[in-house]
């Protein structure tokens, strides 16, 4: 089976929808056929991590992220870990990532005649997934980004929200590179966090500008601005800030950012900061030898420092 044939057969379904299990089961069945037709496994694929070899083979951005993480001494550990533990742990500040090796179990649950009727068992496995691309991005940004100029509690919180916004923007870039169909395998299992879109751009600059808008809107959402206020602010800033980006692209980027899971914005992200902000302050203080600082002001209308930092990230990731 060719990659194009696989893409045509894959089904789309929203996260946590009634269609997710059915679509996932069908997609895993097609993936088994595709994998069986491949002679080689992608170099560096992690044993047991769902679709790791697949995305290493088909995505240049996925490969660049992996190479950069390994080049900075990053390590992987195959451990039994749930998504909630992964998202709440201080391991986020370490140069190692844990993942549950669930691929064989996922494929068995989807294709075994005795198991194919158990949607609950299949979706339970999804709860053990880790998005390695997302986690890699965090570790890369700790090394890549300058520390915040304001290292007060409020300043550290804003910096964490900026970092999270950039990481989510990178997830979007990966989803768009793959497209919704090839993203579906990872998205429906939680090994990718963005379902991708069909957005197309004439130039790399236009794509960067689109991602800039999505990241800035995501930052406002994480800063707990109401959706109507985010839309109002982005409409006000865009004409002078991104004059060459079509209004439709601005609106698309903002709408996409505001689809961020409410539970993550209002619960997971806030609880992580409440639990780990003191430790993060000590962690970031170790970078005080770096002369550059990111100036992240209380007023989000002042966006020069973040813009320049995001541009550096895009360059590092080859976007």
Characterise this structure.
- The structure is a single chain.
- With 319 residues, this protein is mainly α.
- It has helices at 3-9, 20-36, 52-58, 60-71, 83-88, 103-111, 119-126, 132-144, 153-189, 204-222, 227-241, 247-257, 262-285, 304-316, and strands at 75-78, 96-99.
- It has a two-stranded parallel sheet with strand order 1-2.
- Helix 5 links the parallel strand 1 (75-78) and strand 2 (96-99).
- The radius of gyration is 20 Å and the shape is globular.
Q: Care to give the gist of this entry?
A:
The chain is mainly alpha-helical. Helices cover 62% and strands 3% of the residues.
- The fraction of residues in strands falls at under 5%
The helix tally amounts to: 14
Fraction of residues in helix: 55-70%
Mean pLDDT: 93
Q: Note the main sheet.
A: 2 strands, parallel
Radius of gyration: 20 Å
Show unreliable segments.
Answer: none
Overall, the morphology is globular
Terminal CA distance:
30 Å
Work out the number of β strands: 2
N-to-C SSE string, H for helix and E for strand: HHHHEHEHHHHHHHHH
As laid out across the biggest beta sheet, the strand order is 1-2
Classification by helices and strands: mainly alpha
Topology:
Elements (H helix, E strand, L loop, with lengths): L2 H7 L10 H17 L15 H7 L1 H12 L3 E4 L4 H6 L7 E4 L3 H9 L7 H8 L5 H13 L8 H37 L14 H19 L4 H15 L5 H11 L4 H24 L18 H13 L3
Parallel strand pairs: 1-2
């Amino acid at each position: 089976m060719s990659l194009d044939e696989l893409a045509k057969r894959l089904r789309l379904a929203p996260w946590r929808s009634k269609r997710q299990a059915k679509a996932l089961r069908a997609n895993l069945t097609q993936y088994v056929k595709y994998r069986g037709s491949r002679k080689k496994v992608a170099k560096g694929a992690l044993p047991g991590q769902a679709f790791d070899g697949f995305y290493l083979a088909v995505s240049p951005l996925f490969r660049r992220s992996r190479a950069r993480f390994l080049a900075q001494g990053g390590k992987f550990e195959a451990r039994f870990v749930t998504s909630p533990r992964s998202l709440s742990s201080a391991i986020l500040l370490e140069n190692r990532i844990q993942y549950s090796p669930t691929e064989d179990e996922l494929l068995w649950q989807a294709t075994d005649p005795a198991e194919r009727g158990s949607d609950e068992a299949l979706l339970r496995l999804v709860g053990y997934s880790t998005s390695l691309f997302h986690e890699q991005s965090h570790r890369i940004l700790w090394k890549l980004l300058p520390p915040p100029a304001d290292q007060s509690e409020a300043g550290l919180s804003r910096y964490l929200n900026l970092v999270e916004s950039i990481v989510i923007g990178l997830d979007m870039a990966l989803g768009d590179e793959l497209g919704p169909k090839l993203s579906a395998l990872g998205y429906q299992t939680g090994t990718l966090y963005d379902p991708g879109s069909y957005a197309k751009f004439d130039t790399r600059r236009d794509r960067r500008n689109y991602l800039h808008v999505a990241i800035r809107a995501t930052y406002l959402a994480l800063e707990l601005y109401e959706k109507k206020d985010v839309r109002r602010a982005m409409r006000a800033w865009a004409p002078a800030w991104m004059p060459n980006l079509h209004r439709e692209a601005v609106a698309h980027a903002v709408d996409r950012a505001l689809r961020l899971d409410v539970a993550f914005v209002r619960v997971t992200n806030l609880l992580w900061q409440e639990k780990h902000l003191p430790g993060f302050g000590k962690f970031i203080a170790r970078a005080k030898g770096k002369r550059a600082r990111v100036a992240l002001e209380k007023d989000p209308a002042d966006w020069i420092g973040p813009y320049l930092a995001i541009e550096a990230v895009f360059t590092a990731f080859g976007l």
